[in-house]
Amino acid sequence: MAARLNTSLHNALSLLNPFNTPLSTKPFYSRNSSFRFSKKFQSSSGKRALYCTSSFGSQENGVDGAETFVLTTPLYYVNAPPHMGSAYTTIAADSIARFQRLLGKKVIFITGTDEHGEKIATSAAANGRNPAEHCDLISQSYRSLWKDLDIAYDKFIRTTDPKHEAIVKEFYTRVFANGDIYRADYEGLYCVNCEEYKDEKELLENNCCPIHQAPCVARKEDNYFFALSKYQKPLEEILSQNPRFVQPSYRLNEVQSWINSGLRDFSISRALLDWGIPVPDDDKQTIYVWFDALLGYISALTEDNEQQNLETALSLGWPASLHLIGKDILRFHAVYWPAMLMSAGLNLPKMVFGHGFLTKDGMKMGKSLGNTLEPFELVQKFGPDAVRYFFLREVEFGNDGDYSEDRFIKIVNAHLANTIGNLLNRTLGLLKKNCESTLVVDSTIAAEGVPLKDTVEKLVEKARTNYETLSLSSACEAILEIGNAGNTYMDQRAPWFLFKQGGDSAEAAAKDLVIILEVMRIIAVALSPVAPCLSLRIYSQLGYSVDQFNSISWNDTKWGGLKGGQVMEQASPVFARIELNPEKEEEEKKPKVGKKTGKAKVKVEQTPTVAEA
């Protein structure tokens, strides 16, 4: 296939210089003898459509002048209800979105469900439902889980939405007009779970998929193909000149390895499947699930009552600031998607971040593997704050992480119940007993000459830096250090003893309580992206309303928020300690040989509703 590069590709990424390297004009042939192509048709007769990418860039600022920050989760596949791996991605995305809102940015947080493809039709039939009914049911289960986890998304897109189909067809038409779609016979090994043809060299014994541990099946189809090989050099240039396009850096190395090994055109339609978006001008083929689902990041930007076209959608926030994905779909987002966008003359997202897997028994958790950790049960048992905090604090973002209930309980109790919750509880108790729950002086005045203030300010800056670089675990650690510093100050100053001494000592003790409560206020703001309901409970006990909490910004982490005369609420545990049941406690006392995991119970405090934006 002739491969003449559209000049609009050169402006695909604003951070890059124009590409100067001409592309090969040789026809595409597979390097693997197990893949055989017989070319039948090539789109367009040499006439190429030119699109000016500068007219489709994202708005630098929202309508109110705020910088726009668009981030996405994957559109989750609805072959089965959500599992903890899906929840993990979304919790992380929500925390990033909440932090960006604290910075004053106009955030558009996109999530949704991918509802077309062979697996969907098969799952629906297995459950005695038609595909549409199945998609409605599973998509709603995602919405329900996101509500339980306090996920404050802005857009939820379903690939069965009519507005999405219109965008997909227009995008397909653009790529077709650019000469990058052609028709050919294809024969190879197909993983139904991945919805992807596989190279034999990447398969395990018995042609098993390395991700799903299931044998791939031999297939031969007459499909439409996207000329991915044409974008070999442009993709190499992008990654060379903008290495932050793929993060973390070791994911970039993976992507460069794939590209350097040689890109091959891939099938973008299916002939044997009815459940999908029909190929324009060929209703006997449906558009391949990835060529469909990836467009959800753009179609989600539109409103249902708006004109459904690419230009309208792109003007509402494209390009995305961040695609947040699991590492198993990195190839689709860091190789296929940029090439597709360049073909259509559109700007590329600013970053693709591929995080690791959550494991159970050393294996990735996934619906196809049948070894999932049920997120609904976890949230019901421990509450959203505990679940959100544990996975963001304990898993270094980007790497794999393993779940253990024992570890979960120990971390949550130590950090949230003890370090943070107990510090607030005992400080408010002393304030009520000795100061009628009223602050005696402004926190700025109370902290004059106190080194703790400088320590807290440095840790706040450390937390901000880590949030900005997506080092979520380190951000949690910095905030916990603030709590540790507050506890150390409390223990060293011993205000309960100073109150007993009376006079100047009692006055100093009253100031100490103001200082510690200011520490708690700052923790509430800094921790709110990770544990919003816990932060609201802290803020409420400091005498603030829900509306005041919902209007906080990162500037509120500056020392000096609490003022003399403010009245605090009555002390009440903001995070209940998770108590092991009697059988578990007895097991803990026995020699730890062949010990079984016991159950745990927790009382979760009722919380006022937190606004979603």
UniProtKB/TrEMBL annotation:
It holds the Pfam family Anticodon_3. It is an enzyme of class 6 (ligase). GO terms for cellular component: chloroplast stroma; mitochondrion. Residues 580-613 are annotated as: Disordered. It catalyses: tRNA(Met) + L-methionine + ATP = L-methionyl-tRNA(Met) + AMP + diphosphate. Residues 203-428 form the Methionyl/Leucyl tRNA synthetase domain. Residues 580-591 have a biased composition (Basic and acidic residues). One of its GO terms (biological process) is methionyl-tRNA aminoacylation. One of its GO terms (molecular function) is methionine-tRNA ligase activity. Its EC number is 6.1.1.10. Residues 592-601 have a biased composition (Basic residues). It comes from the Eukaryota. Keywords: Aminoacyl-tRNA synthetase, ATP-binding, Ligase, Nucleotide-binding, Protein biosynthesis. HAMAP family: Met_tRNA_synth_type2. This is methionine--tRNA ligase. It comes from Capsella rubella.
